[in-house]
Fold each of these.
Amino acid sequence: MEIKELARIVDTAAHLGQPITQLSQNHHFSEADAYAIQAASLQRRYDRGEQLIGLKMGFTSKAKMEQMGVNDLIWGRLTDAMLLANGGSLSLDRFIHPRAEPEICFLVNQPIDRELSLEETPNYVSAVAPALEIIDSRYENFKFSLEDVIADNCSSAALVLGEWQLVPSSLDQLAISLEIDGQIVHLGSSSAILGNPWASFQAATRLAAHYGQVIAKGAYIMAGAATPAVYLERGQSVAANVERLGGVILGVQ
Ligand code: OOG
Ligand code: MG
């Protein structure tokens, strides 16, 4: 069956850290098919013993949409194998052409199996943390169509979470920076994330419910990058800082 075969191709590329041509070059598939490929590729990870730890939203900011030339919200799945320690290191050997981006992560306090309204979202979150997401498209040259990137689990590769903070009364207009070797390379605002990171959380509940993915208690929801992503090079240290929430740092080896 084609969905399973395409899932095998993207999963193997991610597992081995080897690039592939865009699936859409040789196969015609819809957005719904792309999510089915993503789900089937994640099933292969679960079969290897990985566990789902949360979801990530993508293209929630204009900066990201413009950088990648894609204009639709996407969502992907995060597993425990992707989690890196804050202050730890990332080995480039495992990846193809990884990029880092600064994010905000939500901690879910009870199961969610339906679309929440924006007003109810804070009742479902116990804490927020600054985060770094490492994305690593499995496609050559980091180029893809909307369907390609969805099938490829939205380029998910790794994530680093900072210390959990009590949810502040507002997540509006917090400065978010991406730093390489202590220098700010991109500066954005939390309001660049769909106008407000809570809107991204709300959209995650809508999309998860639509695709039949229950969000578990304890799940992490990554709101999406507020700035463009940057390529990483060996020897660098990369950090994300979010005003009032603190930061995270990772060495690149
Ligand atoms: C897709 C993932 C987008 C974000 O935060 O917008 C994403 C990509 O850019 O390769 O994670
Ligand atoms: Mg991201």
Note: The pocket of 2-oxoadipic acid (ligand 1) is lined by residues 56, 58-60, 64, 68, 101, 133, 135, 137, 149, 154-155, 224-225 (CB under 6 Å).
Amino acid sequence: MQYLLGIESSCDDTGVALASIEDDGQISIVAEALSSQVEMHKLYGGVVPELAAREHLRNLPLLIEEVLASAKVGVGDLAAVGVTRGPGLKGCLLVGLNFAKALALAQGIPLIAVNHIEAHIFAAQLDHPELEPPFLALVVSGGHTEIHLVKGLRDYQLIARTVDDAAGEAFDKSANLLGIGYPGGPALARLADSVDKSPFRLPRVMRQSEGFSFSGLKTAIAMLIKQQPSLEEEGLRAALAFAIQEAIVDALLFKLKKAVKQTNQRKVVVTGGVSANHYLRKRLAGWSQITPYFPRIEHCLDNGANSAYLAAKQFRLGLATALNATALARWPIESLLCE
Ligand code: KG4
Ligand code: ZN
């Protein structure tokens, strides 16, 4: 049995997890811990990168200590350290990467760099071990909206990607316009789920193009909200939220249906923060031509277990990373095969 420590600090959550690798290669998550920064960024209505980086620096040693102590594993027992190298906020990535490099150097163990989008995708396998490529993956998070054909580890064919905003941003910005809480996505979804229909209907945009686009929808949402004399009434806000959630989910499903047809793949992984959305899950569950795979809700959002699991898979294949590796704010997964 070997142990690998996984670190995630690409955005505003600090995540740490300990993975075990059995002699037969089986990977399990032994312990995990997460520190959310929501309360701090709430004051500013969005993630402040410098503050997030500082929080990661404060949280990381505490979470690592907590995870190792709960598993009764010492630093000296680690066989490798995995860490998110990108994509994400550069200052935040640097904190995790430098921490992992120092640990690797001090312990004389390999560093395993992880791509955050790939980690979101393989989180579905962590929670559904029977899932094997090939499959389609729809990644819907605060910074990313893309569909890939997953042929194997590090082997992706891009099918569609957003040309502007991500689906999570569309949720968050709409919630902001409606004046409901931070983070906006879950708050808007809760409000939308409190009703089962809406008199409002938003346009369905960019249906012809290859990629996703949410900027037209964002403008339509802003105009619709502006037309309302007041947003005081909860029922009106819920009706607007319902129409917004339906339009965003429709946009995702329209492109996903095209991808299923194009690739003839029936296994579909849906992952990233927005995949925690109940309405999206309900619509996918009702689609009989596909078998959807979602990570557990905690693993849809950013966390350490996703990084530890993917790093352990890479470690098993002997894929270590040089200690001079830099943080990558942008790191498209379709380029991984050529690295
Ligand atoms: O994957 P994630 O935790 O962080 C990134 O890598 O971006 O995704 C966060 C995004 C945010 O935009 C958040 O509002 C959205 O996921 N989100 C949701 C829900 N839960 C989180 N959007 C809609 N419905 C939800 N239930
Ligand atoms: Zn993420």
Note: The two ends are 29 Å apart (CA to CA).
Amino acid sequence: MALIGTDIDLAQSFLKNGQLVGIPTETVYGLAGNALNPESVALIFETKNRPTFDPLILHTSSFERVGEFVSDFPEELKQLAKKFWPGPLTLLLPRKPIVPDLVTSGLNRVAVRVPNHPLTLTLLEQLEFPLAAPSANPFGYISPTQAAHVEAQLGEKIPYILDGGPCAVGLESTIVGMEDEEIVIYRLGGLEIGEIEDVVGPVKVKDHSSSNPAAPGQLDSHYAPRKPFLLGDLKTLIAKKQAEGFDFAVLSFSDAFVQMPQEKQIALSPSRDLHEAAQNLFSAMRKLDETPVQVILAELMPETGLGRAINDRLRRAAVKG
Ligand code: TXA
Ligand code: MG
């Protein structure tokens, strides 16, 4: 079992010692280690059971400190950083040699972000090194949005979890970089495309590359519950599973199903608010995965704003194999 608390000094001492700590961010909880210490970085991959071809995000406390790790910062990306940091934006920038190969999986760019959570920002300000932090879940499983989620899956393997409460955004950061002169989104996330386009104009979305590690977290099957997860029109799916005699649970955007037991259904946002739906998504998927049913039935959100990123996660959860 990990200790869980709000002691920044204690978190700091574990990190300085090369150990890993669960940290809160506004998006999801991270599994953090000293990004400049290859042994700590290796421990992250091992603890998560993550393949080393899937690189990590480097977290730092301010825009000003990014220069320590990157050799170039294109003007357009600077504008995004100034507008959205601290926040759910990760930028791919050419790395300096100080960044260990293992952090970037040998790629020329390093992913950098300034997370927006008071505890973690204070921790990062106090540390002399940046933190490498993937989401604090075993590879391929649903990302954690509460300290208890981290404890449930990695508690045996790490000494401390910094408890910052439930994550305000609930979806991972949006990953952005440049190819030639073009701005590219590699992972849809907590920062909406529209907000990015308001600052830099039209962008290209390149978020689906199956098993290609050039844009990794984009492995098709990801964010996945252990139970079969079926996406479609809920009324049709429910009728079908009932007829087939399956025991199922339902994840809806806003609808309640009066004829079904309360504990076998979750509506992400009864008022149809996509921010609220994003906040609730991963904990709802976890809860239903732990409910004793054979299959989870779910529906897509409207494809607007955060709905696009939510739907991306739902589709990946539904892919098997
Ligand atoms: O919101 C977030 O981004 C959370 C919190 C903890 O900050 N972190 C997170 O990390 O989601 P992770 O490791 O679960 O996902 C990071 C994604 C991976 O898909 C990885 O492949 C991609 O970022 N990535 C990291 N470095 C990259 C690089 N140099 N080039 C391309 N993709 C990269
Ligand atoms: Mg992840």
Note: The chain has ten helices and 15 strands.
Amino acid sequence: MSLQKMHGVWSNRWIFVLAATGSAVGLGNIWKFPYIVGENGGGAFVLVYLLCIALVGIPIMLAEVLLGRRGRQSPVNSMRYIVKEANQHKGWILIGIAGVVAGLCILSFYSIVASWILHYVVSMAKGTFDGLQAVQVSDYFGAVRGNHWVVAGLHTLFILMNVGVVALGVTRGLGLVARILMPLLFAMLLILLGYAIAKGDFAQALSFMFSFKLSDLTSDSILTALGHAFFTLSLGMGAIMAYGAYMPGKASIGQTVLLVGVLDTLVALVAGLAIFPIVFMSGIEASSGPGLLFVSLPVAFSGMTGGAFFGTLFFALVMLAAWSSAVSLIEPGVAWLVETKRFNRVQATVLLGGIGWLGGLGCLYSDSLFDFLDVLTSQFLLPLGGLCIAVFVGWFLPRKLVANEMNWEGHPMMEIWMFVLRYVSPVLVALIFVMAIFNKFFK
Ligand code: TRP
């Protein structure tokens, strides 16, 4: 059976742009980015993060899309195909397999955060936050987190939503979400930004996010920035490879990937610029951790005319962004299981969704499992996967094959990209790893 019949192919490159942006823009941008910026001291961290996006993220994203489009199957089988085509060692297929595992690990804690978001959609609509101060909102968030039955129910709902879309086939299930709802989310962020500029402490937010002392940097925060560059671009586990497989053969990979990377970064920066003015205005600690979004934004909305309405809309849109990201966490595994022909799409999706559901319940009852899966994936599995992808494409694939698939034969970009992919990205990832390990064990 052809890929076309088995998984579907997108009719043009814009659907790839939208789906890949849908995967990239998610809780990572709106929930995680602001809080890790806060925890890691602001500007210096932002700078390292931006460098990681440009020097590591984008070059590796190009490589990942290339592998998918060359192989035209699930990441595991795409790797199998390319390894054979280029006559390389079968061990490289592990990139695909590790990705499936990493995806399930991420889905487990991602779904719990998504269920807090779902809870907030309802709280906002009910006007729960009217007139509350930051301290009270913070208590409220604590109570939401502690309400295990409700969170478990919402987590189940979120998993079912994802199973639904992936069972339909992402090529069919995703187009609409990406086309209409992503632009709407961005518009909402701009409204919030406007509010933050008018009412919040915008000057302090700007200087917090963009002025830096190099002495603020620790090896830990550098590793966090690197890991987040992978996380936010959905890199290093095959999600983007799987989407690359559905990309039409003629479309230019270079422009497409650049656009996705820029959009993703823009959303994260705007989210930060909308949240920090409110954080500083209402006396919330910038370093208060995962609750940052959940405490700061209700404060902003409660001070806004029509706040309940805008707040409900905003959290609903964040939920949709989380949804269009989470589907890409199981798609690689599902596509693989379907290709083995032992499962149909529905069975495969239910199986992997079920594993994610169990993992999420685990995270719900154990905060340390939640933290462990977050650190394991962002700071270890994704950068490692990305490192392998860079080395494989940079050093082990015939240059001709790569240039041909990129449509970059004789193009100066090819030389620049190859240089970065061979020497810059892998060396940076390796260096940051070594530094972080050294500091963990020998200091
Ligand atoms: N990029 C998404 C976010 O920022 C999360 C995500 C979706 C992801 N698919 C992924 C992260 C694959 C790593 C790998 O919220």
Note: Residues 412 and 418 are 10 Å apart (CA to CA).
